[in-house]
Design brief:
Number of helices: 26
Structural class: alpha/beta
CATH architecture of the largest domain: 3-Layer(aba) Sandwich
Number of strands: 29
Helix content: 25-40%
Shape: globular
Distance between the termini: 41 Å
Bound molecules: ligand MGD, molybdenum atom
CATH topology of the largest domain: Rossmann fold
Strand content: 15-25%
CATH class of the largest domain: Alpha Beta
Number of domains: 4
Largest sheet: 6 strands, mixed
Length: 762
């Protein structure tokens, strides 16, 4: 019998079509004007052979090979839910008793599912918090560097991830938009918890209204053709030099907005003298952008209403603070901050919903619980956490103590996808005594765990999807039964809480249905206070969605407009109340890797210091999936070359290496190596190669650090070094590699099959 159920993922709302308990097709949400094609990868992924069918425990762990033993190479032993629950409850209690609560690392970073109740990380942290606490992580891989820096400069992170100047205002008022890192169309398919319905249409409407786009990026493909953007190729990691040279040129012309700099900013007197020799000619040598282009762009910014933006990728690089801070300085020198549809904001091209006209509505989320442990790390420093127990880490003016981690627990994320320098992670991963992973699939993370608990996917449960960036709330009806012996994260943890005596505090005595009603009603009450009458739960559930009223174009929103109008009455939340072009706070930290004003710092790895045969590797977000999710699906598969992730190369870079399109190559540096398939692309800056993230890490010799990844995961190549001691963000984009033909036999890709399973005598 065919059934159709409303459902949702980060990559779009859809209707699930099922037959006989299987997902056979998906249909886009009828109200979505630009349905994301990624939903088509769901049936094959949900029913993939890579699903974990029951609980497993690593054989070596059962035999006592725990701390100090490499993970990833052992067989797994099946175990019943009852037994594994008891075993894990005992092990958790042991670790807490012997080593303290901070010995459990429960940062559990990752995107998990769109459903807000069953959100795995929230469930896990609730459980670990009630159980005594855990060491956690702060910030996101997406924009960690900005999260630490930007509040020092403009007092709020809303300029990166919140309510920023919206597309309606930009379309109405701006004539020129400089986009460092472009506005990549591929990134707009997804938005956390929601449906990115207006990403492309927003930009195209601005174009139609007369906005001229300039794509300053190593890759022309970072803006879609419909925007007719001018392309300014630039060397990766050098944007700060170009932006500072634009400021310098404006000063040389005597055209900086002195009034704005005096009334709305502090530190111009300190920044300006550092710019004297930062000329466009100087920047040309660093960036590869002709001095004349830099001058022309600066003059065009002076001549017309201009919006400035940069992709989040720019700050996932060595000293990733600098291009962001420099761009704010450029907006300040132009006097644009807070002018209608002008100024600066980050990430318009980075994720669906960024810059959407939006109404500030309450969110829907699982109530958090207190974490009695105060230890944390900036999220990207997980390897260091394992490597240096008792050590200190300088972060944002503080010295953090790294606790001694004995147990790692992950639900809804994948460090063997997201983390840099996987071979170094693999070595550090041997240190804890126990690693627990809740996962629907045999991802690389599950393969490198000790205790693997099979989780249901969203299709197997009821939930509610919501993103503050969207106008829709979506009901997610259970469409298929749990696959194999998979269980909901909530139920897994409720049973563990039971074994440890706090089930009632964890569940608050609600089941799934009661939780959904509770969360929805809370949201509905909060909406009513803001004047929006949402339907009651039963009507919402039957209808499949709630639509919030659209925002009228005349409500176009410009961030910082109050501040621009009257900085004394509406100060920023910085120490000075103004834009900090020099920060006494940051200068006071006394760190050479992040001085008190924006500046050019030479990256560790970049084309300016590359050997003749080295290339700059950018590992951008994949067009064919969300991170590592959906990699088993047909869309990712169709894009691969001989089953390997494609690496884009300029035809001349390929020619000098004797490489041809469709050929399998070995991409390597001192940190690691992977296979990939050559795709020629003249729209790249010479010397730059693109290898998207997300092909499941597939080492030729599982469990052996340094082994070749046969599938094409770029994180065997990237460096794991904090952006700076101020921000400690991930710096994946600063990475040099070499590429050579692969002449050996092609090893099979084994990622989408379960690892070796062995029964053990009871
Ligand atoms: N080289 C390089 N690396 C990068 C980046 C880069 O630009 N370059 N970008 C970084 C960025 S911005 C990000 S956000 C990260 C993304 O990193 P992650 O968010 O860790 O990546 P995902 O693949 O989305 O991992 C989510 C995991 O949750 C699992 N999951 C989904 N639903 C459920 C559920 O209901 N329950 C449970 N238990 N599990 C579930 C999925 O199967 C998947 O394995 O990657 C980062 N890594
Ligand atoms: N389809 C799809 N969409 C996604 C995701 C996904 O996995 N799949 N992930 C989502 C997530 S979690 C996030 S955080 C966002 C990330 O959003 P971004 O960080 O914006 O995404 P990226 O694709 O890493 O980078 C965008 C472009 O920046 C350019 N770039 C890289 N380095 C430099 C540089 O030094 N200078 C300049 N000028 N340009 C540079 C690259 O050419 C790249 O294509 O994307 C989101 N959107
Ligand atoms: Mo991200």
């Amino acid at each position: 019998m065919t059934e159709i159920k409303p459902h949702a993922a980060h990559w779009g709302f859809f209707d699930a079509v099922t037959e006989g308990g299987r997902l056979v097709a998906v249909r886009p949400f009828a109200r979505d004007p630009v349905p994301a094609s990624l939903i088509d990868s769901m049936p094959a992924t949900v029913h993939s052979a890579a699903r974990v069918d029951q609980p497993y425990v690593r054989k070596g762990w059962l035999e006592g090979r725990r701390a100090g033993h490499a993970r990833g190479g052992d067989a797994f032993v099946p175990m019943s839910w009852d037994r594994v629950t008891r075993l894990l409850a005992e092990e958790t209690a042991r670790v807490r008793a012997e080593h303290g609560d901070a010995a459990i690392y429960g940062g559990s970073y990752g995107w998990s599912s769109a459903g807000r109740f069953h959100h795995a990380k929230s469930q896990l942290q609730r459980y670990l918090g009630l159980g005594g606490g855990y060491t956690t992580s702060i910030n996101a891989y997406s924009y960690a560097t900005a999260q630490a820096l930007i509040p020092h400069v403009v007092g709020t992170n809303e300029v990166v991830l919140g309510r920023m100047t919206d597309w309606a205002a930009i379309a109405q008022h701006a004539k020129l938009m400089l986009c460092f890192g472009g506005l990549a169309a591929k990134n707009g398919y997804v938005t956390s918890g929601g449906a990115a319905m207006t990403y492309g249409p927003n930009m195209r409407a601005a174009r139609a209204a007369g906005l001229r786009f300039v794509n300053i990026s190593p890759y022309r493909g970072d803006t879609e053709d419909a925007l007719a953007a001018e392309w300014v190729p630039i060397r990766p990691g050098t944007d700060a030099a170009m932006i500072l040279a634009m400021v310098q040129h404006i000063v040389a012309l005597g055209r900086e907005d002195r009034a704005f700099l005096a009334t709305h900013c502090v530190g111009w007197d300190k920044l300006a003298p550092t710019l004297t020799d930062r000329t466009p000619e100087w920047a040309e040598g660093i960036t590869g952008v002709p001095a004349a282009t830099i001058q022309a762009l600066a003059e065009q910014c002076l001549a017309q209403p201009t919006m400035l933006t940069a992709a989040w990728s720019l700050q996932r690089a060595d000293y990733g603070e600098q291009p962001y801070w420099a761009l704010i300085a450029l907006a300040a020198a132009l006097g644009n901050v807070g002018k209608p549809g002008q100024g600066v904001a980050f990430g318009y091209g980075s994720s669906g919903g960024i810059g959407n006209p939006r109404r500030e509505m309450p969110g829907i989320s699982l109530p958090a619980t207190r974490n009695p442990v105060s230890h944390f790390i900036p999220v990207g420093r997980v390897t260091e956490l394992l490597e240096r127990p008792g050590g200190t880490l300088h972060y944002n003016g503080r010295d953090l103590t790294l606790p001694d981690i004995r147990m790692v627990w992950w639900a809804g994320g994948n460090p063997f996808h997201h983390h840099q320098d996987l071979n170094r992670l693999l070595r550090a991963w041997a240190k804890p005594e126990t690693i627990v992973v809740q996962e629907p699939w045999w991802t690389a993370l599950a393969r490198h765990a000790d205790i693997v608990l099979p989780a249901t996917t969203t299709l197997e449960r009821n939930d509610i999807a919501h993103s503050s960036r969207d106008r829709f709330v979506r009901a997610m009806h259970q469409a298929i039964p749990p696959q194999g012996l998979a269980r909901h994260d909530h139920d897994i943890l409720a049973d563990l809480a039971d074994a440890q005596g706090f089930r009632a505090r964890f569940t608050e005595q609600r089941d799934e249905g009661a939780w959904l009603r509770f969360l929805y009603d809370k949201w509905r009450t909060a909406c009513a206070r803001q004047g929006f009458q949402a339907p009651d739960f039963d009507s919402f559930w039957a209808e499949g969605h709630v639509e919030m009223p659209p925002i009228e174009p005349h409500e176009a929103f410009t961030q910082f407009s109050d501040f621009a109008a009257d900085p004394e009455a509406n100060p920023l939340d910085t120490p000075s109340g103004k834009v900090e072009l020099f920060s006494e706070t940051i200068a006071g930290f006394n760190r050479p890797d992040c001085p008190g004003h924006p500046t050019w710092l030479t990256p560790r790895e970049w084309l300016g210091a590359a050997a003749a045969d080295e290339l700059h590797l950018l590992s951008q977000q994949p067009p064919t999936r969300l991170h590592s999710q959906l990699d088993p699906g047909p869309i990712a598969a169709a894009d691969k070359i001989e089953g390997r992730e494609p690496i884009r190369m300029h035809p001349e870079d390929a020619a000098v290496r004797g490489l041809a399109a469709g050929q399998v190559v070995r991409v390597f540096n001192a940190r690691g190596a992977c296979l990939a398939g050559v795709r020629l692309d003249p729209n790249l800056t010479r010397g730059v190669v693109l290898l998207a993230t997300g092909a499941w890490f597939d080492p030729l010799e599982p469990g052996v650090p340094g082994s070749l990844c046969v599938h094409g995961n770029p994180n065997v190549l990237t460096a794991d070094i904090g952006t700076s001691s101020l921000t400690q963000g991930p710096s994946a984009q600063s990475c040099l590699v070499r590429v050579e033909a692969w002449s050996g036999p092609l090893p099979p890709v084994r990622s989408f099959h379960p690892p070796v399973i062995e029964e053990m005598p009871a």
